[in-house]
Amino acid sequence: MPFIFPALDKTDAIGASQRVPITVLTGFLGSGKTTLLNRLLRQPDMHGTAVVINEFGAVGLDHDLVDHTNEQMVLLANGCICCTVRGDLVEAFERLAHSPQAQSRELRHVVVETTGLADPAPILHTLMGDPRLAHHWRLAGVACTIDAFNAMATLDQHREAVKQAAVADRLLLTKTDLVPAEARAPLLARLRAINPLADLTEGPDAALHSLLALLDHTSTTRLPATRTEERSFFFPVSAPASGDVSRHDDQIRSHVIVRETPLSREGVMAWLDMVSAMRGDDLLRVKGIVHLADDPDHPMVIHGVQHLFHPPETLARWPSEDRRTRIVFITRNIEAEDIEATLSVFERRRNRGSRPPSPV
Ligand SMILES: Nc1nc2c(ncn2[C@@H]2O[C@H](COP(=O)(O)OP(=O)(O)OP(=O)(O)O)[C@@H](O)[C@H]2O)c(=O)[nH]1
């Protein structure tokens, strides 16, 4: 059942219009939240928008804006604020309320990006119900990205993914370029069954329009022609240390592989091919920035979601001083250390020109 949000903006007598609206962007691991947010922030007239990246847990996936502290607030060039939260959401909003942008009423909207594994209900309860937030903030709506390629399997296997779709006001189907329209019909029917009331859009442009509508920016913003995505902002990876492991539940783990020395492009690609072919079902998410021996100034960005590995991207420059290879894995039923060991063995064997190791 979808949540029915109280119509705070219309009926609340105590100055609801002065409270800053919050839009929650949820969606399973790798479903395209960050891609959409990057695009959103490149739209004209986005000044006064704050993005709060909600990163509970030890492994940060989505911020390489500046050096990493536990909580940070960064003013972007276009006037947007970006804030990473790893602890108390209420505290983060209290801090945001005291920012110069909020104090001067320049802050017009906040978008909260949840972690892909998060059950959104506790976050929504906090945003809707915590008395410490009621004075400054109001929940405007929830958007959920759905990966057209992976969603059927994800919905089968992850309660959180079903909950994310169920609570959304807007379901944003992404990666429609990878799945022909007729093949999407079963997924659409399933989403309709989970959440019959949500507004459902297909494709990245429609998703952007839909998100803009939630932000009330539709009247002032026109979409530019489609262009190559620049992954400049929320970017992997804050890596506490190689071997850092955090458990979301009994089966799901996150792990960061860190390498100080540059890696061979062929070696990394072959290793990823092997791991995804053998263990793709249990490889919920892979996200990384790789220092390549053959192109040390241009890091390679890798994104994998279950069996699907997106074509690697090459960045024009390193996003920070940290030039180590950092790869985040979120896995189910795989000992994270085994993946790391496989890379090591794979590297060694490739260096010796022998066959790759057997799968993890
Ligand atoms: N082909 C295609 N790829 C997409 C689309 N949207 C996102 N991607 C790719 O999917 C991968 C994951 O996208 P992200 O935006 O990082 O996904 P996310 O939901 O933020 O991921 P988490 O932070 O791990 O939850 C990246 O390689 C994106 O380029 C799309 O519409 N089509």
UniProtKB/TrEMBL annotation:
Identify the species of origin: Hydrogenophaga defluvii
Asked if Ubl conjugation is a keyword of the record, the answer is: no
Q: Transmembrane helix: is it a keyword of this entry? A: no
Role: Zinc chaperone that directly transfers zinc cofactor to target proteins, thereby activating them. Zinc is transferred from the CXCC motif in the GTPase domain to the zinc binding site in target proteins in a process requiring GTP hydrolysis.
> Which superkingdom, per the lineage?
Bacteria
Q: Which PANTHER family match?
A: COBW DOMAIN-CONTAINING PROTEIN, COBW-RELATED
Name of the protein described by the UniProt record: CobW family GTP-binding protein
**Which ranges carry the CobW C-terminal domain?**
252-347
Q: Which family does it belong to?
A: Belongs to the SIMIBI class G3E GTPase family. ZNG1 subfamily.
> What keywords were assigned to this record?
Chaperone, Hydrolase, Nucleotide-binding
